[in-house]
């Protein structure tokens, strides 16, 4: 017979304090989540971060800011170019002397150089005259060409009527041609460009305000219940409008900043292309960046933020008046 096996001693259960408790293990995580939720609600009780998208509104405002930056740069560039051309055209005068003999040319030059309004007077050589007329008259024009004298005036607004009369008496047939007509037309063109630029800026501001108003109304509709509860608990219209307007102004300023940054390379490229019109060379350089309207670009984000703030304030206050 085999011996009977020894009885096994039962293992005592672990004490209650050592047993893992599901409620105790989940309690710290739950408390942390609730604390984070309370802080989030305290920072944004209306849930505007979800109601007002941080992508759509800044993107639309960025497009408007880019258009405004191009408009401002175009108006400023046209004004600078017109000023340069006005200074050159207004101060340059041409004198034509028929039958340009040496005696007639010398008499005309002496009279012109003695006048106090004339800074310099130089006769244009025959080779240069032929070169200027070659595209229209060919290599050897059959018509007799008059003598040409170029004048530079000491002041662009100098009166030339008396000088023209004295020149016609001293050298019969001589004509003094000022560029006042072209200067007047150029001035009118610059004023027209400035007026169109103002109209475009007003249109951009109006469209931006409309976009902000639509986004604000969408946010109000999405958080209607939360707004109603806060309003019933004693929140004033100024508090609710202030929260909306701060959120909208920040998004609008962010979008305008993005649009201004996108406009910098485009404006630099346009400035490089327009450099030959002002005596420069058409190539990319750091000097092209110096001619950009940096002050106007820097003013776009604050202006967009102000438009967003005012539009949101007006929209929210008008919407709150219709609450029961």
Task: Note down, in words, how this protein is organized.
The chain has a 4-stranded antiparallel sheet with strand order 2-3-1-4. The N and C termini lie far apart (97 Å). Helix 3 (56-91) runs antiparallel to helix 7, helix 3 packs across helix 11 (294-320) and helix 7 (180-222) packs parallel to helix 11 (294-320). The protein is built from 11 helices and 4 strands. The protein has helices at 22-43, 48-51, 56-91, 102-114, 126-137, 161-170, 180-222, 224-232, 237-274, 286-290, 294-320; strands at 92-97, 118-123, 147-153, 175-177. The mean pLDDT is 76. By secondary structure, it is an alpha+beta fold.
Question: Could you write a compact summary of the structure shown?
Answer:
With 324 residues, the chain is of the alpha+beta class.
Radius of gyration: 39 Å
Query: Number of DSSP helices?
Result: 11
Order of helices and strands: HHHEHEHEHEHHHHH
Coarse shape:
rod-shaped
Low-pLDDT sequence parts: none
What gap, in angstroms, lies between the N and C termini? 97 Å
| Main pleated-sheet profile | 4 strands, antiparallel
Q: How are the strands of the largest sheet arranged? A: 2-3-1-4
Overall SS class: alpha+beta
Q: Summarize the amount of helix as a percent range.
A: 55-70%
Which percent band covers the strand fraction?
Answer: 5-15%
Mean pLDDT: 76
Number of strands: 4
Highlighted features:
single chain; alpha+beta; four-stranded antiparallel β-sheet; 7% strand
List the helices and strands and how they pair.
Elements: H1 22-43, H2 48-51, H3 56-91, E1 92-97, H4 102-114, E2 118-123, H5 126-137, E3 147-153, H6 161-170, E4 175-177, H7 180-222, H8 224-232, H9 237-274, H10 286-290, H11 294-320
Antiparallel strand pairs: 1-3, 1-4, 2-3
